[in-house]
Amino acid sequence: MFGKDRLLREGAEAQALVLDKRVYAAGVQSNEATSCRYELRVKFQDGTTSEISRRVWHRRLAGFQVGDLVPVRYDTDDRSKVEIDEPKLVARDEAAEKAAREQAIERGEQALEGSGSGSQGDASESFREEAAAFREQAAEFREQAAHFAERSAEPGANMEALQAIMRAKAAGDEAEVERLKAELKRKTGES
User: Fold this and answer.
1) Residue 74 CB partners (closer than 8 Å, separation 6+)
2) Angle 77-80-81 from CA coordinates, rounded to 5°
3) pLDDT tens, 2-44?
4) How many helices (H) and strands (E) does the chain have?
5) Phi then psi for 44, rounded to 5 degrees?
6) I need a surface site. Which of 44, 76, 123, 157 has the fewest CB within 10 A?
7) How far is the C-alpha of 54 from the C-alpha of 73, rounded, in Å?
8) In Å, what is the CA distance from 39 to each residue of 17, 36, 50, 77, 95?
């Protein structure tokens, strides 16, 4: 007979399939489950299966979804004693954290080495220039739209045309913008 701690240290390893999950508590901001009940199908080492229900109370344990495989440990003498293998999950999470940290440091070191060449500085400067040009273009367009609206003999019809131009501009369709501008100029008698 195994207790839970001994079962998690010495029990036989197996996998369980999550058949159903009922969430009882979740984080307020993250909405991640922190307490739930699983319906699991455990596949033992000899190939036989058994369905069990387990309640868990930790985000790490409650993060599985229907269809996921969960590592478990069981007592070979009493297969009703099955526990989700939290130590294995902790080790897996720590290894993933370590790998992510190492990758982040590697990316940072590459960026640090590349920062001396000025390539990132050039890219951000180019972006700033493009953004400034876009702001100027938008201001010019607003002025033109106001000018057309003032000179318009048919305010309603021209307002629709201006809205169509703004939609084409927002969609990035420069050809349509130019076509609509030319049409509007023709209608208002401006050359």
Assistant:
1) 7, 11, 12, 14, 42, 44, 81, 82, 83
2) 75
3) 677 888 888 889 999 999 988 878 777 777 777 888 899 999 9
4) 5, 5
5) -80, 170
6) 123
7) 13
8) 8, 10, 11, 22, 28
- In the chain, where are the structural domains located? 4-90, 137-188
Q: Quick one: tokens of 78? A: 């009493």
How far apart CA 121 and CA 113 sit, in angstroms, is 13
What is the H or E stretch that residue 62 is in?
A: none
Picking from 162, 157, 158, the residue whose alpha carbon sits closest to that of residue 177 is 162
As beta bridge partners, residue 182 has: none
* CA gap 126, 146 in Å, rounded: 30
Q: What distance in Å separates the CA atoms of residue 84 and residue 31, rounded to the nearest whole number?
A: 22
Classify the C-alpha dihedral 20-26-30-31 as positive or negative: positive
CA atoms within 13 A on the CB side of 46: 5
**Residues contacting residue 145 through CB under 8 Å, at least 6 positions apart:** 162, 165, 166
* 136 backbone dihedrals φ, ψ, rounded to 5°: -65, -45
Report which residue type is found at 103: Q
Q: What is the pTM of this model?
A: 0.50
| The two three-digit tokens of residue 146, written as one number | 């106001």
- Over residues 42-74, the pLDDT tens digits come to 999 898 999 988 888 877 787 888 999 999 999
